[in-house]
Amino acid sequence: MTRLSELGESHIISRVLGRNPSSTHVIVGPGDDAAVTAPEGRLVSTADMLVENEDFTREWLDWKKLGVKAAAQNLADVCAMGATPHGLLISAAVPDDTDIVCLEALYSGLFDEAERAGTALDCMVPIIGGDLSSSGLIVIAITALGTVGEESAILRSGARPGDSLYLAGTVGRSAAGLDLLFAGARPDTVGPELRSLIDTQLAPQPDYGALRTVGAASAMIDVSDGLSLDLARVAAASGVGIDLDCSLLSDLVDPLLPAAEFVLETRATGGSGDGVGKTEVAATAEDLALSWVLDGGEDHGFAASAPPSAVPGVGWRRIGEIRTGHDVSLDGTPVPASGFSHFGK
Amino acid sequence: MTRLSELGESHIISRVLGRNPSSTHVIVGPGDDAAVTAPEGRLVSTADMLVENEDFTREWLDWKKLGVKAAAQNLADVCAMGATPHGLLISAAVPDDTDIVCLEALYSGLFDEAERAGTALDCMVPIIGGDLSSSGLIVIAITALGTVGEESAILRSGARPGDSLYLAGTVGRSAAGLDLLFAGARPDTVGPELRSLIDTQLAPQPDYGALRTVGAASAMIDVSDGLSLDLARVAAASGVGIDLDCSLLSDLVDPLLPAAEFVLETRATGGSGDGVGKTEVAATAEDLALSWVLDGGEDHGFAASAPPSAVPGVGWRRIGEIRTGHDVSLDGTPVPASGFSHFGK
User: Fold this and answer.
1) What secondary structure letter does DSSP report for B183?
2) Distance (Å, rounded) from C-alpha A312 to C-alpha A218?
3) Which residues of A touch B46 (CB under 8 A)?
4) How many CB pairs under 8 A join A and B?
5) Which of A10, A179, A337, B243 is deepest in the core (most CB within 10 A)?
6) A190 and A324 together in one domain
7) How sure is the predictor about A269, in pLDDT bands with cuts at 50, 70 and 90?
8) What is the CATH number of the domain that holds A79?
9) Sign of the alpha-carbon dihedral angle for A177, A181, A187, A189
10) What ipTM, to 2 d.p.?
11) B165 φ/ψ angles, rounded to the nearest 5 degrees
12) Of the candidates A93, A122, A82, A132, the residue with the CA atom closest to the CA atom of residue A304
């Protein structure tokens, strides 16, 4: 084991950035005061951070998956604007007794996910800058940059009554994985079905490729905080109501039933479940699985609205309709916006 | 007192961003998945973070000054490329029992410094995005964006023998302020002279205005880690040696002598000084003051090299010469690169 404190900052940076892909857009990469790049069109930028004990725990920590998750949550935001990723800035604060191998794994996860997005969208996604700092808590703060044509950013505000609502990727799997972890499940103690849910929590895999077939969507959002909350944001920004169709969600809910049964059983038998999310209020596995689908974010599925003339292609499933109003409902019954939010309320 | 945990995330964000200036470059500001802006020319981007216990302590914490410092260290990096600031992305992680008034002070400091840079360089510097998270430790991670003409970025690699070396702003004051804090000095227990050094540590004020008169500089760097280390970076990138002229540094060293005497006296009498930086090896106040000037960063002075045909204007002082070689010297004697570096060595 070689602790970061035994190495110099520049040596560490050259080791973790060894895999950095070259990109014709990068004029000056890491190493000067700032990067210089040549974006084409308008610039799309977003920043998001993962904080130890808030977004993950040391106990579950898989450095490579943490890198995947940190990249995914930022790339998904760029892509949800209809933009093409341009580059990442990575600020990482880690304890100075961290093994260099762990930091290399973190960056390996970042590169893997950036490469996955780049392959799906036919672009290069280099790390163009960042900062490395020592800290008692692990914090990964990322800025993702992208580019979009002058009139082609897809905002939250464009949904119109008569549009249908579509989803690419999944929702609910990451929340199920989190409740499994809180219930004491670990990747090496459960079967492949539950393990894959835990993997979605630890290393979500947004379906970037579906963005190639989104077409003339009227609105789009990265579902990071749960359908109920994120669709309420679309509804508010667009001045519309949104009705989810329960029958169209069953393909998302049904695969979560075994996990819901595991979690409820663990709680019933006084297992190690700490109880987060919806576990404490769900009476049945069906209720719990549905609540994961409605309120669970972090799969980074993409929700988009589109008029009948512009039905999205491969990778998109219809899950509801845009209507007049200002709320989100499920088969006509209002759904409270109870996805994830920092700072309560 | 109103704790963040009693408020909703969106309410908090709207309160802290109330002062956000409008900018014609911003097409979509905070509130969607990502910002959309229209940079002119090439994009300059940099990211840097401030971490509690590493970069500041709760004991010395002044939220507004923390905001100033966080903005300054990122804006200085953008400006040291010869670029014009374009916008900031702010990721802040703070304990959820933080008073909203503290967070408002933090953002007030961010806006103050962004406005100061904007006024100096005749541009708007809005906050275009970011993230707010709860955390046990305070972490402020910023990405600063800027724009520069196609051929006009000023890199570290352009210094040439025969150029002179110039400084805008100061070096050493922030390091003196830090050693004063470690020696037990506090803004309300010392006179105005020492207090202003502590203020430079807590809220550095880069001389952005000097960048208007830098002219055709051959290289430039934000002196964030100390002259000895940052000039060694310029020397390495440019393939040159750099000789500092001790007599030209006296205007920087002499004003630090009272602080050096305070710090050495506190240590001699067994005061509360913890001893950081160079205190433990400096025998005299002159030695200590000179070591602050050579090795102390965080004033965010700008060092630039320029040929005789392009002497920078108002705000710049000559401090040395670019020569052949590959090291940094002071009146011909090698200076070890011993400024600040994370992770030892």
Assistant:
1) T
2) 11
3) 33-35, 89, 129
4) 245
5) A179
6) yes
7) confident
8) 3.30.1330.10
9) negative
10) 0.93
11) -110, 130
12) A82
